Amino acid sequence: MFIVICTRYKLEKANSIMNHWFLHQVSIASCMLLLIGCADKQVSSGNDQDAFVDSLLSTLSIEDKVGEMTQLTLGAIAIGEPYDLQEPQHLDSVKVQNALVKYRVGSILNCGNHEHAPEKWHEFITGIQTAAAAKSSGIPVLYGVDAIHGPTYTENGVLGPQQIGLGATWDVEIARLAAKNTAEQVHAVGIHWNFSPVLDLARDPRWPRFWETFGEDPHLVSAMGTAMVDGYQNSGVPFAATLKHFFGYGFSLSGKDRTPAWIPERQLREYFLPPFKAAIDAGAMSIMVNSGEINGVPVHSSKALLTDLLRDELGFEGLLVTDWEDVKYLFTRHMVAEDYKEATKMAIDAGIDMAMVPLDLEFTQSLLELVQEGSISEERINQSVRRILMMKKKLGLFETKGFPPSLSAYPGKENYAGAAANAALESLTLLKNESPQGQPVLPISGAGKVFVSGPTSNSLNALNGGWTGTWQGTDTAFNTKGQPTMVEAMQMRFGSERVKHMDLGMEFTGDEIQRVVRSIQRQQPSHIVLGLGEMPYTEIVGNIDDIALFENQKDLVRAVHALGIPVVGVFIEGRPRAFDDIEPLLDAIVMAYIPGDYGADAIAQVLDGSHNPSGRLPFTWPRHTSAHLTYDHKHTERIHSDFSMNGFNPQYPFGFGLSYSPVEFSGLKTDRSDYGMDDVIEITVNLTNGGNRSTNELVAVFSQDKVASITPSVDRLRHFQRVTIGAGETKAVTAKIAVAELGFINRDNVYAVEPGAFGIRVGNQVVDVAVTMKNK
Ligand code: BGC
Fold this sequence. Notes:
Helix content: 25-40%
Radius of gyration: 27 Å
Number of helices: 23
Largest sheet: 6 strands, mixed
Distance between the termini: 60 Å
Bound molecules: beta-D-glucopyranose
């Protein structure tokens, strides 16, 4: 152990920005570590992880413990102001010593305002772990980061689609592989903890983090989320997932970030809880708390949600971390506490283990005082520290002391690019493909020119979204070198002589539209392709007052449509913007979501027909700005049969998507017509590919509870799978649904399956079955 530390220290010394005091500190710490190392050896040769953690815990002082429960951002220990760091960035040895040695801070997060090269990450992590080794306990630091669609804060990392695009693949293996690839690349720079996946639901497109989710349905989100947890945690490198944000985030009344949500317990349990429950059952190691309030109570202060529900009922034993600055917000924003100390007590009493403070040490001091004066028991603190140490132990930090693996083992891009490109391809969703004359417009055939314009057509930032390179993902300086934008990828696929382009920023004017029109008139292309949608944003920066597509983009569509040339709209955006008034003016529409660095080529492949699109919407696309309903709405929300109004009338339904080789569903049947409570319903449906190319179809099985004690939804997703069907082929597909899965949260807020009649729907096919109490 001692030798390892010294060798590492020597190796890094040349590049280290640490001051010479470390020599002294490190040698003291190394002796301490030798002791821990010995304990560690004994444990691994017989005792279990619990014994190791308990024995280490028994040696810690209160100061050590409150330090472990503190998380700071990298900016707080680097040279300069946290949001204005000196470049090139370096750790500040004075701040490092104060935070990591004096205050014994147990965790660091984030990237210091922008991404870094792997070498820079190594410098940071090595400096941080060297300092951690010098504190009295020698416990390594747990480093966390938001690597939400690949290694988003590592230069040149391989970036696939954001979660909403993964949701559109409806393919759990794609999500699992994306997570595994992220884990390997992030672990290679010495980081073991990822603040991903998001298990919130996309039930309100106004919410600026809609795109960070897998979609609107709890079953889809549970399946994709657990696959991602598995990919992060069980891929061969020690790496932890974080489920966020527990829970009900994203369904505020206003649709704006971190504003009040009013969600009755029944709805919380019916929709928002199941993905977290599934991922906890799958072994997720950590959870981050929702920054908002539910029913008037900030979630960070809710013992009912964070302890009674999360710990006692769901049995979560991992690490519960706050979101950014959320202890402080209890008294600066939510106004439920007088000051830092009261806020700290509130959050600890509620059940948090670690505070993402992240800029100062007030939490640490307040917590120390609260324990010293007896307002918080040491027993309570031990619970949290035990969970933190356990996570560090499970991640192997005590063995490696948290130092990064050798850079010579840094994995090449070629290991991951194929998976990211495939995920992007499988996510793209064809929403329309019909000229006014009823002819398909895509794939683009012939040898004519293709005119490309629109604000997202030449932007890598638009393709990658928030949390890419920087928090907001808008800085072009951090784009991955060598990746094409949509127009560049089209030039490569169609030939640069065929593709003409005119750039437009987001704020383009009527004059610029006229310039585009004149240019099209000069070029006489056979097709016009417009990159529409949004530039990146996240959190409060992405708040909007209107979900309508931007007026200038609609004007652009109107103007180019008037030229009488087929127009293809490609939406590169994280949420569905309402565009009903100009939908008829687009002959073909592709939803690209936020497909990542390989998304441009994927779009070009859909446009030129090299790829047959198979993505399906993971959400309902609203037709009107003020009439959004999810697919699982109630019967009273259907179009009123007498007046043809007041109803569910989306632009495109949940699960919708076209292909170049359409598939028909037929012959849906179940193995029986009535079932008992413990039975499994076996469903068979035929899929016929009537086209001339192989296609990949989504088989989504919905249940329809005909009569129930809580008004039933018209449809609930119960199962999904992807099936490949050759040209002209018919395939019988079977699926199984346990009767036990047909329940809902009843009037007592308890999950129950009620006997009675159910419809089972796949595509346009429905069969009815009966459920009886027979084997109960
Ligand atoms: C976001 C989290 C994120 C955290 C750390 C917060 O502002 O809400 O999703 O993981 O910052 O970067």
